[in-house]
């Protein structure tokens, strides 16, 4: 089981099993949410996700794929924890955990992205991740 928490500890999440995929996203929304050129995400099936503590604030919008996305964040410290979006390939929903909130200090190392999405928006000074599949759009067929 992997766990994660916000900065203040008000929101704690967990999930079982292995991620469906680990993704770098270069879309404009992820840039705004992360404050950087991309976001690092761990995608898991909704049924494997558990909110252990707290009630996050949520905000819904239309993502770069054209589908509805809901983001969940701590209303005290504002840490963005995860988002929920439709799984266009298999139905149901995917929980997209921001990999940096995972509690294990090695989480970013152990959840190395194997897919980069919205690469058409990648800034010129960020190079493609070696060995990762590159998708100009949402990469939904790889998730």
Automatic annotation (TrEMBL):
PROSITE patterns per UniProt: CENP_V_GFA (PS51891)
Tagged with keyword Thylakoid: no
GO molecular function ontology, one term from the record: metal ion binding
Superkingdom: Eukaryota
Domain CENP-V/GFA: 2-126
Pfam families in alphabetical order: GFA
Keyword terms, alphabetized: Lyase, Metal-binding, Zinc
Family under the similarity heading: Belongs to the Gfa family.
Protein's name according to its UniProt entry: CENP-V/GFA domain-containing protein
Originating organism: Oidiodendron maius (strain Zn)
């Amino acid at each position: 089981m992997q766990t994660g928490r916000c900065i203040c500890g008000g929101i704690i999440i967990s999930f079982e099993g292995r991620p469906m995929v680990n993704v770098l996203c270069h879309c404009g929304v992820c840039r705004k949410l992360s404050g950087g050129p991309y976001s690092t995400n761990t995608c898991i099936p909704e049924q494997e996700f558990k909110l252990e503590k707290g009630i996050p604030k949520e905000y819904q919008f239309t993502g770069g794929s054209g589908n509805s996305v809901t983001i969940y964040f701590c209303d005290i410290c504002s840490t963005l924890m995860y988002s929920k979006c439709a799984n266009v390939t298999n139905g149901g929903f995917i929980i997209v955990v921001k990999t940096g909130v995972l509690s294990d200090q090695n989480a970013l190392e152990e959840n190395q992205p194997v897919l980069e999405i919205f690469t058409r928006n990648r800034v010129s000074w960020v190079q493609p991740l070696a060995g990762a599949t590159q998708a100009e759009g949402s990469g939904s067929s790889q998730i």
